[in-house]
Amino acid sequence: MSTKGRPKRVGELIRHEIASLIAKGLKDPRIGFVSVMGVRMSPDLNYASVYVSLYGNESERKSSLIGLRHSAGWIRREVGKCLHTRITPEIRFFPDDTLDQVYHLEEVFEEIHKDQDTSPMLRLDLPGLIEEIRGFDSFLLTTHVNPDGDAVGSLLGLTHFLRALGKTSIACVMHDPVPQRYADLPGANKVVINPRKVPECQAVIIIDVAGRDRIGDINELVRHHQRVIVIDHHLGEGPSGSIGYIDSSYAASGEIVADMFELAGLEITPAAAHCLYVAQTTDTGGYRFSNTTPRSHRIAVKLLELGVDVAAVSQRVFDTMPRPKFELLRQVLNRIEFSPDGRLAHSYVTIQDLDEAGATKEHLDNLVNYARNIEGVRVAALFFGSGPEITKVSLRSDPDFNAAVFLENYGGGGHAAAAGATIARPLDGLRDEIVNRITKLLTDAPEGISE
Ligand code: AMP
Ligand code: MN
Ligand code: MN
């Protein structure tokens, strides 16, 4: 077959297909009245520039274009089903400025970039998320600073999911190192810590964290990336300009990944099961915290059937305390103070304590739970003075005291019963303020508090 007229024919096919998708109605509510005027193919057929006429007032036209660009991955896959080419071209939408003279391409794209930075995360359902992911070939994955078991477990579980989908170009990066007790998870040795540069990729996925500010220095490296996908179970909104799935009914991000395997019709591999079990068991405190659901147990059953060694995981993750952590625990327990009614217990550690104990930040994980477990305590707080002007607060609470909402006032977040914040203030004054505020809230509304 001669290839000369091929780009034209493929372009015409794509035009026809996109026009009929638009006629059927696209899901994105931002897309208003638009029509496809023409498609220009790159000679290698890798890119299709789709020229569209946009109708309505300026802001309606702009949001149509933003909506189309957000839907481009899905449209591409739909188009791919009807094309018999080896690679489905990447689809890029442009306003048709020959017909729409008032539109200035450059200005529009500048506007779109601005808008993408402030437009709220586009929420997908889980099948939609999987579809979106299927449309990309190369990925960069990351998670939050001070990674816990769910951060590492769901991140690595997701790499196994992507492999099961047939993806091969997957890089994992994190701001902080993998804590020692999760270092045996399959794939943990491939995570690159605090890189200066990240590999090119079509999509960045951030998991177990919804805020860009919580991925540390990685944020700087992916700041301008066009496609950021969020998978998370914390309270709150995703970063603006991103797309994703956030569902706080899940006890762990690892549970979401387990459901992604199921929905995609893929078998969870034993390596993935190990990662996802660690994700689940750590975020549910061994299936004991209030976030644990029947679904958690159903997922756990599946993971155990795949051969997860529960005793080995428990021993390593929960029952082995490194000596430096024990030394910190001594300090924390010694310094616990109570509010007059005993409903708040709080303690603190400083960076000097860490140095003296030979400890690192990872050893702080869950120290706050000891105060939480004291009878009568409804809220436990641990303050960590990580510098003269920086204090990390960890809160654990009864489900009726919404710790995440309380810490939102301090730029933090998390879950109703477990939340944190990093605040640019010295430990002492901040601790007094937070202790007083929580004490008052607990005294004023002892039965049901939700700020
Ligand atoms: P931690 O007290 O650090 O174990 O954190 C408890 C929960 O709150 C975890 O789910 C964290 O992801 C979340 N969290 C901790 N620090 C912050 C923060 N600075 N901003 C938002 N969420 C946080
Ligand atoms: Mn986490
Ligand atoms: Mn989590």
Tally of distinct domains:
3
Distance between the termini: 69 Å
- Hetero compounds: adenosine monophosphate, manganese (II) ion
Q: Report the β-strand fraction as a percent range.
A: 15-25%
Radius of gyration: 25 Å
Q: State the name of the first-level CATH class of the largest domain.
A: Alpha Beta
Which percent range fits the helix content?
40-55%
CATH topology of the largest domain: inorganic pyrophosphatase (n-terminal core)
Query: What is the SS-derived class?
Result: alpha/beta
Strand order of the largest sheet: 4-10-9-8-5-6-7
| Assigned CATH architecture of the largest domain | Alpha-Beta Complex
Count of DSSP-assigned helices: 15
Residue stretches low in confidence (pLDDT < 50, at least 5 long) are 99-103
Classified in CATH, the superfamily of the largest domain is inorganic pyrophosphatase (n-terminal core)
- How would you characterize the largest beta sheet? 7 strands, parallel
Secondary structure tally: strands: 16
From the spread of the alpha carbons, the general shape counts as: elongated
Mean pLDDT: 91
